Amino acid sequence: MGKSWAPSSNRNTGEVSRVEAPVTLRGYLLCAFAAFGGILFGYDSGYISGVLAMNYFKMQFGSPNSTDDNAYNGYIYATWQKSLITSILSCGTFFGALFAGSLADWIGRRSTIIAGCGVFSVGVALQVASTSVGLLVPGRLIAGIGVGFVSAIIILYMSEVAPKAVRGAIVSGYQFSITIGLLLASCVDQGTHGRMDSGSYRIPMSIQWVWALILGTGLFLLPESPRYWVKEDRYDKAAYALSVLRGQPVDSQYIKDELAELVANYRYEMENMQSSWLDCFRGGWAPSGNLRRVCLGMAMQMMQQWTGVNFIFYYGTTFFQQVGMKNSFTISIITTVVNVASTPISFWTVEKLGRRTLLIYGAIGMLVCEFIIAIVGTVDPGSQAANLCLIVFTCFYIFFFASTWGPTAWVVIGEIFPLPIRAKGVALSTASNWLWNFVIGEITPYMVDSDQGDLKCKVFFVWGTTCTLCVFFAYFFVPETKGLSLEQVDRMLEETTPRTSSMWIPHDTFADQTTRDDVEKMTNKMGADNLEVGTTHTTQA
Ligand code: BGC
Prior knowledge:
single chain; mainly alpha; Growth Hormone, Chain: A; 2 domains; 21 helices; binds beta-D-glucopyranose
């Protein structure tokens, strides 16, 4: 392993090592575009709850049941139909994410996302065409598979193409898009719910196509991930992709250095592992072992769900009604707006304070809010003070989630896996998000419904406890990855424990002289063949 030069980066002061080119606005925008995929995720999870509450939809998809209070003109769907329509999406996304983990290694990251948009569009067509639960459910299942492709592989793609100094911020942009998707869904539902024709549900459903179209066509203009090309031994294509992303000529020193590092790291890792599904579970419990990393990624997404955030987004409206609040719909919109407005804070803090700090303090912030809601709501249930406390601390709670765990859980899973198993590791972690999303969505009504657990505000004791576990999880298991290239993260995991990781400073490179010579020859030839793109900088500062 080469030690040709020591990168002088000090990640705690935010200085960047010399390996990567300076981040240009164009490069930033190119990498950030993929974040748009979050809209698909957010909009799709969000639009169905409003549609299910629409009167025309109840008449069209329901069956006669005059005893149900929620029925419209005596029409409503059975409970199992309602829960199937809602949860079948998570079922599709779970399997979609897992399958995409293999596909992204076969056909590439970018192509997998584009394929995801295609699959998603077929699902949307079925939903729009449906007039009964029989067609709606397969439509949601197929759309879910597409969302699974997109949600897993966008994180992978963004983490692999982003410059390391802004990788956290760029991946946080994905979470920001999720929150916008959720907000757009409630606005569209709000706009069409009064219609007494099929437009009431077909408009919100058709709008899903717009997001898929923008994402799918936009991605055609972006390069494939250079790390995928390295994996495929296509160093020429990797150099070209890097030069587009970094806005540098293909034979510039920046591109040569970065590519040499990617190639050398991949060669080094392939000496110790292969890239099958089985390899994801090898390597034991050492901090750099694959098994440990996969468990970390899956647990990270599980814990993100156990913060209890979707209790507010999926059941907030009905919960606020249950505890006697009249303006429950408005409160739900407010929580969605707080979610959108707080997420951009993380663009800065995730790079400045780091992933660990955000996760630890974010969970502490959430648990304090949750215990306050639970205690006040239990001591003085239904009082004005308890209701005010519920609204105010729910907003603080969403603020803490949106500015910490929301984005950071995605950032971390994009960073912790070595290239040979990265696609599968991210896919497994994303599948875990959807699995727990589904499980929590299914069990929550049993905790709060009046004919079931009827916990009312006491349910926040449960979320407060799970958030306390999140603090321990972040403190003991999550390493600090800010300011490092993905290759440096590998080295850091080999040499530190989570608690000492933030002190680690890059001290040598993977690239040896042979790799550097290989890359030098190839990029010089490409430069001479006039394949260079980007700006006129040809040498490193
Ligand atoms: C979570 C979703 C949640 C959303 C809220 C995402 O990071 O994975 O389950 O609904 O954030 O903004």
